[in-house]
């Protein structure tokens, strides 16, 4: 189908397009991705219409959004039905009906335009704009290593194992946006005119000048944000979830699980986070569960073993800024096991 004559309002009242925006129908998603591919001149217009759908999903409830769209569709259907049985006496009424529908769409578009250019862009919309063409990889780590990265504005990032950090191509010009897969600690250089935003598949964390840790591994079902200094706003990047934003003060954290209806806010142990920053592991006659939990916390990898054998494992010792391989080799030597690694998962072998 040729959508050349479609405007933003036409896209918005198209059920297939709405399904594409909210990723509720695979066939519709494939259809509109194909439209973008085969009709590249429509890409900008489709992107703007999709942003509008996402904004609607964030600012109003799903029921309210659906009711508004249904009302608009009914008004258009009534106007179209009347147009099939036009009589001379009904021309004036039909004309007014058309004016009413057009006016509603015009006001809707004007409100959207004002909102778009005067309000901060939501985390969900920012994440929807992330593409390989607009972001590039700054640093990537394997399961065994960490990296300390300095961004162009002076922001310092400690990137944990099995993690990837991408940066917007216009970083430090018009914006300061990065995309994280995995886990990292950020010491953000203060800039009141350009908020620093960390985007993940689950969360968007916005700050001016502060320090915080973000965790969002693709293999885990939860994401978290821990705040050390300053203040941050944490949003969900799932546009149709209607999850309330959270403001954190130092010592607070939020977690978001797959399928959850909201963030869970709590306090965290600052010493534990400092140990993470320093790469410090302390074990005192630790059993397997304690060892696996601390390794997951420091290195972001999951350690598994046959449950029948884990009762044999005990370890006492301390590691300061050591690689995961060095830690596992030492614990394995004492407990007579080796291990296999695949991506961010470790399998203990006796």
What does this structure look like?
The protein is of the alpha+beta class and 350 residues long. The chain folds into three domains: 8-119, no CATH class; 125-271, Jelly Rolls (Sandwich), CATH 2.60.120; 279-349, Phage tail protein beta-alpha-beta fold. The chain has helices spanning 8-12, 15-21, 26-38, 43-59, 62-83, 91-118, 123-128, 270-278, 288-299, 307-310, 324-335, and strands at residues 135-140, 147-150, 156-159, 164-168, 176-187, 196-199, 203-207, 211-216, 222-229, 232-236, 246-248, 252-257, 264-267, 280-286, 302-304, 315-320, 338-342, 345-349. Strands 1, 2, 3, 4, 5, 6, 7, 8, 9, 10, 11, 12 and 13 form a 13-stranded mixed beta sheet that branches. A hairpin with a 2-residue loop joins strand 17 and strand 18 (345-349). The longest helix has 28 residues, at 91-118.
């Amino acid at each position: 189908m040729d959508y050349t004559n479609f405007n933003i309002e036409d896209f918005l009242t198209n059920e297939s397009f709405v399904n594409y925006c909210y990723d509720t129908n695979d066939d519709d998603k494939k259809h509109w991705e194909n439209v973008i591919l085969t009709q590249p001149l429509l890409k900008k217009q489709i992107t703007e219409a999709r942003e509008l759908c996402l904004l609607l999903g964030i600012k109003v409830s799903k029921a309210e959004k659906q009711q508004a769209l249904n009302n608009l569709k009914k008004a258009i259907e009534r106007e179209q039905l009347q147009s099939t049985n036009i009589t001379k006496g009904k021309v004036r009424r039909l004309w007014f009906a058309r004016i009413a529908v057009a006016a509603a769409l015009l006001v809707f578009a004007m409100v959207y335009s004002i909102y778009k250019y005067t309000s901060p862009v939501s985390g969900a919309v920012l994440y929807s704009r992330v593409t390989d063409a607009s972001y590039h990889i700054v640093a990537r780590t394997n399961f065994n290593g960490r990296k300390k990265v300095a961004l162009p504005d002076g922001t310092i990032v400690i990137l944990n194992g099995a993690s990837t950090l991408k940066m917007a191509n216009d970083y430090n010009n018009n914006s300061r946006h990065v995309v994280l897969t995995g886990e990292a600690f950020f010491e953000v250089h203060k800039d009141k005119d350009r908020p620093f935003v960390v985007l993940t598949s689950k969360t968007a964390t916005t700050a001016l000048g502060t320090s915080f840790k973000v965790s969002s591994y693709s293999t885990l079902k939860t994401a978290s944000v821990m705040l050390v200094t300053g203040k941050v706003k944490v949003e969900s990047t799932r546009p149709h979830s209607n999850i309330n934003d959270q403001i954190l003060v130092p010592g607070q954290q939020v977690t978001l699980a797959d399928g959850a209806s909201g963030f869970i806010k709590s306090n965290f142990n600052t010493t534990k986070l400092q140990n993470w920053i320093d790469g410090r592991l302390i074990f005192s006659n630790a059993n397997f569960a304690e060892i696996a939990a601390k390794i997951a916390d420091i290195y972001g990898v999951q350690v598994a073993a046959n449950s029948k054998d884990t009762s044999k494992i005990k370890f006492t010792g301390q590691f300061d800024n050591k690689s995961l391989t060095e830690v596992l080799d030492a614990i394995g030597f004492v407990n007579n096991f080796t291990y296999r690694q695949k991506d961010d998962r470790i399998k203990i072998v006796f």
